């Protein structure tokens, strides 16, 4: 979040899960029924409530203090139908899918400092890059 | 002086017998410890959590930026459905009534659902990078 233009000097909050001891980066499990995929595979809807995250306003500074917070959000990807294929044999991954649109509505809370924030409705946000599809990587790449 | 030979000469047959008896003492104690048989059988296959992408980004993290020709998944040894997005723009309001924008070129999200490898076996699950 930024007060003013989105440049590092204006960053006032940064919400994300902690990095796992394994190095898994800002990744958390998705509860059952939180992710729905339309039968035709063209729409993904991810909706999660009260996800434990941290607020690190000075991220990515190494000494950026992490304050416990929670995040509730809904995110919707919709395929545009334009095919996309990314593959890198040296990195053992292959993605086959389509371009997409993605919109997000969210709210966050940092109880210890009495801060909360709520975004506008889903249709007031947009992302400049989005894709959805199928991927294989690692041990599944050659199979 | 041959220290090894000299050392051997200092030990009598009685000393050796004493030492042998002491040497098997830990084994005797171990077999008589009643707590060991109560332990649950266990494996040592690692955790069932997914592996991170093995290579590092420019910041030295197991993080994959979102973008064309970049890998969408954040977990390795994975096959399944993925969605990825970045460069968000939007606005919201805090509890003081201040309008605060969110999103930047590095604001990215992703979701992965399918099979992944953990604890030396195929696992099923869904994960999100937020």
Please identify the oligomeric state. heterodimer
Radius of gyration of chain B using CA atoms only: 31 Å
Biggest interface, which chains? Answer: A-B, 68 and 60 residues
Low-confidence stretches of chain B: 1-9, 24-32
Succession of helices and strands of chain A: EEEEEEEE
Q: Measure the end-to-end span of chain A.
A: 42 Å
Return the average pLDDT of chain A rounded to an integer: 95
What is the count of β-strands of chain B?
6
* Rg on CA atoms of chain A, Å: 17 Å
Topology, number of strands of chain A: 8
* Distinct helical segment count of chain A: 0
Strand order of the largest sheet of chain B: 4-3-5-6
Q: What is the end-to-end distance of chain B? A: 72 Å
Structural class of chain A: mainly beta
Top keywords for this entry?
A: 143 residues; 8 strands; 55% strand; B: 130 residues; alpha+beta; 2 domains; two-stranded antiparallel sheet; disordered N terminus
In words, what does this structure look like?
The complex is a heterodimer of chains A (143) and B (130). Chain A is mainly beta and 143 residues long. Chain A has a domain at 31-54 and 67-140. Chain A is built from no helices and eight strands. Chain A has strands spanning 15-16, 27-29, 35-37, 43-55, 67-88, 93-110, 115-119, 126-137. Chain B has helices at residues 3-10, 13-23, 25-31, and strands spanning 51-52, 75-76, 78-94, 99-102, 108-118, 121-129. Chain B has two domains: 3-38, no CATH class; 51-129, no CATH class. In chain B, a hairpin with a 4-residue loop joins β3 and β4 (99-102). Chain B contains three helices and six strands. Classes of the chains: A mainly beta (143), B alpha+beta (130). At the A-B interface, β2, β4, β5, β6 and β7 of A face β1, β2, β3, β4 and β5 of B. β7 (115-119) of chain A pairs antiparallel with β3 (78-94) of chain B, so a sheet runs across the interface.
